[in-house]
Amino acid sequence: MLMTNIETIPGKTITACHGVVSGSSVRSKHVGRDIMAGLKNMVGGELKGYTELLEESRAQATQRMQAQATQIGANAVVNVRFSTSSVAAGAAEIYVYGTAVTVD
Amino acid sequence: MDLIFLIVFWSVPIGLGYVFGRMAEARHYRSIIAREKTWLGLPATSLKTVLGSAPVARSELVTGSVVVAVDHFKKAASALRSLVGGPVQSYETLLDRAKREAVLRLKESCPGAHEIVNVRLETMPLTGNQQQINGVEVLAYGTAIYYVEQSAAP
Amino acid sequence: MKYQASLPEHNDNVTPGHPLKDFVLILAGLSAAVVVGYLVLGWLIDVVVDRMGPETEAQLTQMVAWTPPASEPAMRTREAWAQDLVDGMRQCAGVSGPVTVRVNRSDTPNAMVAPGGVVVVFSALFDSVQSENGMAFVLAHELSHMANRDHLRAVGRRVVLITAATVLTGDGSGTAGVLAPAQHLGESGYSRGREAAADAKALAILQCRYGHAGGATELFTTLQREEGKTPAVLHYLASHPSMAARIDAVQVAMRQAGLQAGPVQPLPRF
Lengths: 104, 154, 270
What we know:
- The complex is a heterotrimer of chains A (104), B (154) and C (270).
- With 104 residues, chain A is an alpha+beta fold.
- Chain A has helices at 35-43, 48-71, and strands at residues 2-3, 14-28, 45-46, 76-88, 91-103.
- Chain A has one domain: Translation Initiation Factor IF3 (2-Layer Sandwich), CATH 3.30.110.
- Chain C is mainly α.
- Helix content of chain C is 62%, strand content 5%.
- Chain C has 11 helices and 3 strands, in the order αααβββαααααααα.
- In chain C, helix 3 (76-93) packs across helix 5 (132-147), helix 5 packs across helix 8 (180-210) and helix 9 (218-227) runs antiparallel to helix 11 (243-257).
- Strand 3 (45-46) of chain A pairs antiparallel with strand 1 (56-69) of chain B.
């Protein structure tokens, strides 16, 4: 499904707007349980395991948003925004939202 | 005897963090600077309008993200700073590296694109037990624009 | 719009300066502040305890008093003898309240004061001294701690200093731990000072009770033989001065006060 984070889809015309759609996924952000992360805390550097975990969570949230858009009859989402927030001790929610539209 | 143990317990992680952390940081910065030069040709702006005037073939949402860990030297330095106030230099370099790396990965995810518009950055801390910050995650996202390929002049 | 590509020459997003220099400066400054604050608070506690009246002291001691368990039958004769010895020295020590002596079986020679006027003697001490005067010096040392109110000082210091450390560094942060070595060194130094003061007063008590200071260093000499070669650094960190230092201090004090060693009373067979 087409997605952009600007208000239009360059090269296409928006014919209908269906309102805001969103997808979210909640993940635990405790680094302590990961042994590799514990070692990395000695020397710093990138936590590749966590980067992948977060990309997967984001992909899931995006898929949920696209599924919701399809359900309401749209074929594209514009003005997509990402947001992360702490919801409970040790957990954060990844929230993706945008405006579902129909383009030709 | 337990004083010596206490001193060792505190200074070994801080020392290791300083030595290896500095090395890793210097290496990362060298990589960042080299790749920024390479990707200079692909403009990434936070504008909502497309720079070029050529017709656009397609566009897509692209993202780049990175998670960087904090070593014990950085934690100790920021703990001391929190008592006296002032700029926390050790975390400044951490966030600077993470943001530039995220934007570079954003560019690397769409090598054929002609430009990326509406680039946004999201930063999120990673906490462990006792609400200590163990690392930081930065997400960069934008819209990659592909112009219509100009066919060769007949 | 025309795109003009360029990169900045230097990074303005980072504060210039070496991170280690920053770290070391703050650590040194904070440790110095901790040491100074420590000394000032410690001095204040000493002043308060010195000015405290006997009623206040009695009230505070009541709050933390410890009732000893019933004595072991095998130790009763030793206990009765040590109790007589202590009762005979109470006036010389300036301790007004009753003092209870307990003897506990142990392989390590030691003696300690518990709050509420209790002196606990560990049975191996009887094998480490050669005369009644030697034992009297150890008991006089413990009586001096009581007379100096050292237990109140120790409790006061712990409460005030831990509260100050927690309040200043904030709850649950690791910062208090980074400054812990400075605190530990300060505490050891203070403790050694109080032990030396108790030794000096014990000497005076001995002189008052027996008319001479013979037998004062018996325990230290015995323990020095068993101490072996511990490096000087560990003594610096210990709560008591080394045996050699204590023997020297007692001999110097005797010379300065013009005290003589005299014939010692023998230790009874137990």
